[in-house]
Description:
Layout: H1 26-29, H2 41-54
Amino acid sequence: MQLPLPVGTSDFWYPAAMGRLDNRGDEVFYERTRLVHHLDSHCRAQIEALYGQLIPAGGKVLDLMS
């Protein structure tokens, strides 16, 4: 998920959009643990604000998706 460009259009689709940058086997990629963001900073801030509204201060959340 990405924030659109401030001017012009954001076209994320082109012929090689789904191509691999590294053609080695998947097992090589998954050898080491990676902790990465899957959303851009704007989207994360929006979700954080939403959670702040929905979850009371000191509330507890059971995260079953980790």
